[in-house]
Write a sequence for this structure.
């Protein structure tokens, strides 16, 4: 019998026969034997073939059983099939739409292309014939298997079909849901639709997926012909692939989110804000929900606040040795104000909590007032601002002082009253940490004066200002040297030798093709010393104060960013993106930045997936 005929007959064998006894033909406990056993169990390999492979490996060809890929390649040869790693295969959406997503996901099959009337379908499980048979029966098409690694297939299926494709697929077959739209009294329908098991499952999948990808926000945006879902990961929005039919379920999905956040599902003309508490693998996630009616339906932004955020040390935060030294000096002071400045999402709170962590002990009483509370810290008294109930920053702060704290953290100084109480707190012997929205460190002085704090009071209470931004860290597995002309020109401009290596983002499985993983802070540290105080008392402009600070050794945000570029931790584009520093090419030479990589590879679900639970408030 020719090998391929034998293969055909084997591939058509009843599945139960091939998996009855997961054989371990090689010596037990060796990695190769484990691999073969696993592959037999997953119906990737027949017992007989596993035996042949084990024998050949024992006879001096160990490379055959080195990895799943090696075994699949061997199988492809034996059965005269093609093998692909799926790296450079263009998806054929039209072809994909011919097959039910549910079956593709369940059986891990990926239709690749149609050749001479035969559809090539990628599979890693040649001996799980039921899936291919189902596809044949359902579509009446001829299919031919092409071997590919299991992980790559799962990744590609998820990317191409979109998150929750199977649930949406199920919904698609339920006709009553299709009439959902604006107008009329369909709130009852909407409510039942929102409680539909598939909608619940879909929304849960979006949450689980976002949390696994370390997203900080989920954006659901209605457009005329699409309902877009994006995650903000490491500060940059990434589009999430979703099934094409999802637009039709937009009202039901939004209603589900309203129900979860105890909002009025009948209200569709006014913005609403709410909260959801989620539990994922015992980790509590507090979700801030904001819904705004837009032209083509309600847009939803979900901010994910992890309650067990892990704090790192100052060095891990990205502080250089000088900054750590300055910070430690400030933390030892008995009173004074330390401000961290930067836009929303620049990691200000994390820096302040890292500082609190350094001084949080039994002898120090720490009280915080925040909106929202982003970290929970043992031994620290934390207050959540509640504007509706009248608990504002100012009011909370005034009460805090009666509790005799040593250290106070005020989430943000937003108004004159809070600014003034913060200064009073410092002058009466408290160490006060807070944040301000200014672009750079020197700007904080003028901002306080703008908030009607007398310059002499600013001078006598403010100890240091720290401006900060977050740059994305290059994925160490796939970063590549940037040999572009722009990189060369930048090195010249910055006065670096051309031998200084700059890196750019690649993209690999480890970072889900984004090229970056995690973020590092860059800082601009300004000590409020005598010279600065004198300038402040003379009502000097921010520019003049800045010049003096630089003269006194202040390193700018960009300087600190370039330090990370030289260390190969981030890219020039990242530094310029977050510092908005375009001065590098101020003489008309235009810097072209690569378009932000918007693609995202959603990683396949872990085998033992933690269950997502919506906690009761
Ligand atoms: Zn990577």
């Amino acid at each position: 019998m020719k090998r391929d005929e034998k293969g055909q007959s084997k591939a058509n064998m009843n599945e139960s026969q091939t998996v009855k006894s997961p054989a371990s033909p090689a010596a037990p406990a060796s990695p190769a034997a484990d691999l073969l056993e696993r592959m037999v169990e997953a119906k990737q390999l027949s017992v007989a073939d596993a035996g042949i492979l084990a024998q050949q490996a024992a006879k001096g060809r160990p490379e055959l059983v080195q990895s799943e890929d090696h075994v699949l390649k061997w199988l492809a040869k034996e059965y005269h099939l093609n093998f692909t790693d799926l790296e450079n295969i263009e998806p054929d959406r039209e072809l994909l739409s011919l097959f039910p997503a549910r079956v593709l996901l369940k059986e891990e099959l990926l239709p690749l292309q149609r050749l001479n009337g035969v559809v090539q379908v990628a599979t890693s499980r040649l001996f799980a014939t039921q899936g291919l048979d189902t596809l044949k029966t359902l579509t009446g098409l001829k299919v031919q298997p092409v071997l590919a690694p299991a992980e790559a297939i799962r990744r590609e299926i998820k990317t191409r079909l979109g998150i929750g494709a199977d649930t949406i697929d199920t919904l698609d077959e339920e006709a009553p849901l299709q009439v959902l739209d604006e107008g009329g009294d369909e709130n009852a329908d909407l409510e039942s639709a929102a409680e539909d098991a598939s909608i619940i499952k879909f929304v849960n999948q979006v949450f689980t997926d976002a949390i696994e990808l370390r997203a900080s926000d989920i954006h659901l945006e209605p457009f005329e012909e699409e309902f877009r879902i994006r995650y903000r990961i490491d500060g940059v929005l990434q589009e999430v692939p979703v099934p094409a039919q999802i637009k039709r379920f937009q009202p039901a999905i939004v209603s589900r989110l309203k129900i979860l956040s105890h909002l009025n599902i009948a209200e569709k003309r006014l913005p609403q804000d709410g909260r959801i508490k989620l539990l994922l693998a015992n980790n509590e996630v507090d979700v801030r929900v904001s819904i705004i009616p837009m032209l083509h339906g309600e847009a939803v932004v979900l901010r994910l606040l992890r309650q067990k955020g892990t704090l790192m040390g100052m060095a891990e935060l990205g502080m250089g040795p000088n900054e750590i030294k300055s910070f430690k000096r400030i933390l030892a002071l008995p009173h004074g104000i330390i401000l961290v400045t930067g836009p929303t999402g620049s990691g200000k709170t994390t820096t302040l909590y890292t500082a609190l962590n350094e001084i949080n002990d039994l002898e120090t009483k720490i009280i915080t007032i925040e909106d929202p509370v982003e970290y929970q810290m043992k031994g620290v008294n934390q207050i959540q601002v509640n504007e509706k109930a009248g608990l504002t920053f100012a009011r909370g702060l005034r009460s805090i002082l009666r509790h005799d704290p040593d250290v106070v953290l005020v989430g943000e100084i937003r108004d004159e009253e809070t600014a003034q109480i913060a200064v009073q707190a410092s002058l009466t012997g408290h160490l006060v940490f807070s944040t301000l929205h200014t672009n750079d460190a020197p700007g904080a002085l003028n901002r306080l004066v703008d908030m009607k704090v007398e310059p002499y009071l600013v001078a006598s209470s403010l100890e240091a200002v720290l401006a900060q931004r977050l740059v994305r860290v290059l994925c160490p597995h796939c970063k590549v040297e940037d040999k572009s002309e722009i990189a060369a020109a930048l090195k010249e401009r910055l006065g670096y030798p051309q031998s200084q290596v700059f890196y750019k983002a690649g993209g690999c499985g480890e970072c889900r093709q984004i090229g970056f993983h995690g973020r590092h802070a860059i800082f601009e540290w300004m000590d409020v010393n005598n010279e600065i105080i004198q300038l402040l008392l003379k009502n000097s402009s921010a520019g003049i104060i800045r010049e003096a600070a630089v003269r006194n050794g202040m390193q700018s945000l960009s300087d600190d960013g370039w330090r990370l570029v030289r260390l190969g931790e981030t890219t020039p584009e990242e530094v310029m993106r977050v510092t908005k520093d375009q001065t590098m090419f101020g003489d008309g030479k235009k810097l072209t930045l690569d378009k932000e990589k918007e693609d995202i590879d959603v990683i396949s679900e872990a085998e033992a997936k933690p269950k997502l639970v919506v906690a009761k408030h």
The chain has a mean pLDDT of 83.
